[in-house]
Amino acid sequence: YPAPSFHSLFSCTSALDSMLFKPFPLCDRNVQSILRDEIVNPLRKTGFVRAGSVMHLREQLTEKGQCSSFTNAEKDPEEFLNLIMHQILGIEPLLKLQSGGQREQDCYCYQIFMDKQEDLVVPDVQQLVERSFLSSDLKLVEIPSCFIIQMPRFGKEYKMFSKIIPSLELDITDLLLDSPRECCVCGDVATLECS
Prior knowledge:
Blueprint: H1 2-10, H2 18-21, H3 29-46, H4 51-63, H5 77-88, E1 95-99, E2 105-107, E3 110-111, H6 125-135, E4 138-140, E5 149-150
Parallel strand pairs: 3-5
Antiparallel strand pairs: 1-2, 1-4
Helix pairs in contact: 3-4
GO molecular function: hydrolase activity
Protein name: Ubiquitin carboxyl-terminal hydrolase CYLD
Keywords: Cytoplasm, Hydrolase
């Protein structure tokens, strides 16, 4: 469902505002104006978005032939972001990831996948991102302009963690590919990396 996605993307940050105003080459101007005028502006002004505005956007996405079930089915946040950012607005991917020396992968958000870990009862976002990157052998190829993270979940009933503490800052130093790091023993620039 897009409403929580809008709230998390636009209510407290202006990092993605360029997609509301910039004339992208492939951009659908009608969808862009609905996002800006009917959803983001009211959200920032009143903290609320009318259901009719969200439905108007859904109808436009269905009309464009992007997805026939956009008006009557729940959508995964990643699917929604890919549709809006790539297919409708033509924005370049925000993240470049590399797994175990393989080729780069481009994406708009990172979904945390990990096995249940007993030592994490109430984790913070920093811990979840680091452990997820480590377990998937992932690295960021470059510092992202915007790092959208989707928290771990398993269906409507089961949640992996009852609570997750937000991290106000995210240290991605150890997540960057080929980034110089400090040796934890001597303090010099490290020559080897130990997981």
